[in-house]
Amino acid sequence: MTDPQNPTQVALVTPHTPSHAGWEHYDAPCVAEHLHALRDSGFTHVCLRPPWHWLQPRPGHIQRQSIDRLEQLLDAIATQRLSAWISLLDVEHAGRLALPDWHNAPDVIGWMQGQTTRPFLRRGTPVLINGRLRTLNMANPFTTDALTNAHQLLVRSVLGYFAGHPAANDWLIGHGWGRLATATAPHMQTWWQTLIAHARQAHPSARLWASIDEPHLTTSPLTLASIAPSVDGLVVSTPQPGLGAQARRRLSDPALFMHHLVAGLSEKPVVSWLSPIAHQHGGASRTLPIQWHQQPWGMPSLTSADQANYYATLLTRLHAAGSHGIVHMHARGALPEHDYEPTAWHGLLAPLIDAQGERHMAGDAVADSLRQWQTVAAAPARLDAERYWYKPQSEWQRMWREFA
Q1: Where are the domains of the chain?
Q2: May I ask the CATH architecture of the domain 8-98+149-403?
Q3: What is the phi-psi region of residue 273: left when phi exceeds 0, alpha when psi lies from -120 to 50, beta otherwise?
């Protein structure tokens, strides 16, 4: 279990090069400089989200070269006296579903098992397949043996390989899977419990984290209640299109509300994965309309001064609410190396640290806030879970109206 006296401050990082080909070929001195700047800013952890198709290009094969590159990054993180969070089976990227190509084909069953009779999922909305936009056309990931075996192989192999590494003790498993509600609750929950059992067996001392999004609290059969007991802590994804325009009244409210709800229902350590913020080049701050998982959402596009004020306000409020920390979504180098633009905000994201390793105004505000966040405040009050799970969708909206 996470030490309640030690907050977890995480910066999300993709290895940076001038061409952004980070996961394949990155500039080691540049990465070391960036890690040093993050440590000086008060961060304790670096979150690595290696693309799933990069680690596992085929269902039964873990890429040795990719493991070696990941190990080099972990060595650099340890050298800077930081720790890592490694995200495995991560199917969310920039507000889109992201999968390996072998996981997405109408004949995936026939290709891997010699038959094509089982049902599969078809949706017209483009998703990221090996980093490129394609139509989702997938066998059921929770009930197809060939797929679930591949999931277990990835978790078992990678956690087992890094079980002795000093920087690799925190693992985020299955980020984004709440939006793939393609099976019944028992099937999805069995998939989850089996996955976590493999992770525990491969790395018994690891701290395992799960991410919680709006579907886990409202519509997904894979609920917060079914996820929380098996992990050591929860990461709350704070972009919430379902909250509507009212969420814009105060930018810090959605993250604070989600922390209050998840911590009160789960009684687990909760870390907030902050929403993306765009940098406004001149003019007044505004909201930028984007699509987040096929839902319209207004992303804040803020001037430097407003960014600094936003982070100072949000981090102060989260700390007072008993948060165990934050994941800051976009430190320098956090953008992917893909050659597509999934949304209109690609390239506009607000970094904390510039290309020379110096903090921007927002980075100074975050560093000042984290310096004051030396311990975790009192835990949030426990919520009436029985009442909530009786009608989760209506309760989620009711509690938001009362909170806001």
Answers
A1: 8-98+149-403
A2: Alpha-Beta Barrel (3.20)
A3: beta
Question: Is 0.70 topped by the overall pTM?
Answer: yes
- Residues 80-135: pLDDT tens digits? 999 999 999 999 887 888 899 998 865 554 444 444 444 455 555 678 888 788 88
Q: How far apart are CA 342 and CA 345, in angstroms?
A: 8
Backbone angles phi and psi of 298, in degrees to 5: -90, 105
- Go through 208-219 and write b for each residue having 16 or more CB atoms within 10 A of its CB, e for each that does not: bbbbbbbbbbbe
Amino acid making up residue 263: A
> What pLDDT, on a 0 to 100 scale, did the predictor assign at position 96?
83
Q: Decide: helix, strand or coil at residue 172.
A: strand
Q: Label the pairing between strands 96-99 and 92-93.
A: antiparallel
Residue 20 contacts residue 349 (beta carbons within 8 Å):
no
Contact by Cβ (8 Å): 142, 181: no
Residue 265 has pLDDT above 90, yes or no: yes
Helix (H, G, I), strand (E, B) or coil at 146: helix
Residues in the chain: 404
- CA 10, CA 308: separation in Å to the nearest integer? 18
Tokens found for residue 88: 């495995």
Report d(CA 80, CA 61) in Å as an integer.
31
Which of 141, 154, 146, 237 has its CA nearest to residue 190?
Answer: 141
At 307-350, the pLDDT tens digits run 999 999 999 999 999 999 899 876 554 444 444 444 555 566 77
Decide if 295 contacts 242 (C-beta within 8 A). Answer: yes
| Residue 134 buriedness (CB in 10 A; 0-12 / 13-18 / 19+) | middle
Amino acid found at 387: R
Residue 68: CB atoms within 10 A of its CB come to 9
Q: What's the mean pLDDT when you consider all of the chain?
A: 83
Are 404 and 261 in contact by the 8 Å Cβ rule? The answer is no
User: DSSP secondary structure string, 277-332?
Assistant: -EE--SS--EEEEEEETTEEEEEEEE-HHHHHHHHHHHHHHHHHTT--EEEES--T
